[in-house]
Amino acid sequence: MLSKIKKLIKEAEEYVTEAADEVEEFRLKYMAKKGGEVTELFKEFKNVAAEEKKEFGQALNTLKNVVQDKVIFLKQQISAKDSPQENLDLSLPGNSEMQGSRHPISSVRNEISEIFTRLGFTISEGPEIEDDRHVFSALNFPPEHPARDMQDTFFIEKNPDILLRTHTSSVQVRVMDNQKPPIRTISPGRVFRNEAISARAHCIFHQIEGLYIDENVSFADLKQTLLYFAKEFFGDKTEIRLRPSYFPFTEPSAEVDVSCSLCDGKGCNVCKYTGWLEILGCGMVDTNVLESNGIDSEKYTGFAFGMGLERIAMIKYGIKDLRLFFENDLRFLKQFQ
Ligand code: PHE
Hints:
The protein is of the alpha+beta class. The protein has 2 domains: about 1-80; about 105-335, BirA Bifunctional Protein, domain 2, CATH 3.30.930.10. The longest helix is centred in the N-terminal third of the chain and has 30 residues, at about 55-80. The chain has 12 helices and 9 strands. It has helices at about 1-15, 20-30, 35-45, 55-80, 105-120, 130-135, 170-180, 220-235, 285-290, 310-315, 325, 330-335, and strands at about 120-125, 130, 160-165, 185-190, 205-215, 240-245, 250-260, 275-285, 300-310. The strands form 2 sheets. The chain has a 7-stranded mixed β-sheet, sandwiched between helices. It is elongated, with a radius of gyration of 37 Å. Phenylalanine binds near residues 169 and 253.
């Protein structure tokens, strides 16, 4: 029996082939679960006399290893032959690396920030987790006031004082805390509202809000600043129109529309045949807001405005579904390279 194993080892060691199906035949000859040489010999093991068991076992294991190594070796040899190095065409162009690109929301934020920094606005940032004062009460939202329902809020734990900011106006409160007028700043950032996710709304989105406080700041300054922004951002032919609105922190307040850049104001399905697209809210800073932030409302006036970046990007690039900004689908993002 031992000599049979040795003979099989020698055979396996000497075996050569270049055909894949023959390698499989070779493997089955030894290793098949039924009738394979190695399998059958293992079954014989219990009949081997006790004093021969050690030598028999060692030889059998050697046979098994030789066969397994041989199968691996032959397979490698065959696959190396299928893709021979000498057939490499060095003149072929290389595989190009995938190139990343800026997210459209970042591009829009940078572009808008740049327009306002040209006008002398600084950029300020603040925390996403805020307290009630910075998001609401310092902005003239009295406790229990229904205006708080305009911005459905996420609270942290069960503490009604700690919440996720619903707008970046909170950053402007921080600026007023720390700076004396003149103040001219914009605050870009992520904001959170407890809204059902749809093509037009998301519970996380981005804003840029602006604040300008100085002596003799008027509504005309606000209008002119926004007109300049609209022309710079959407193109020279862009017009704006202001509609009266309500915000607790501004008085008077307005909503601003730009003429639809897709149809030049003639009316199309994006602007719902009105020729206008709403882009932001604004107004003159309410005297209550100035006073509760330690600014003399007899001496100073100011304006504020705020816009959602997703909405602006949708208008600029003709995107119909806001959720696309959050899915990180490369087919979408690649279009902004
Ligand atoms: N903070 C408002 C919002 O998030 C936008 C706004 C800012 C309106 C400043 C008027 C003035 O809806």
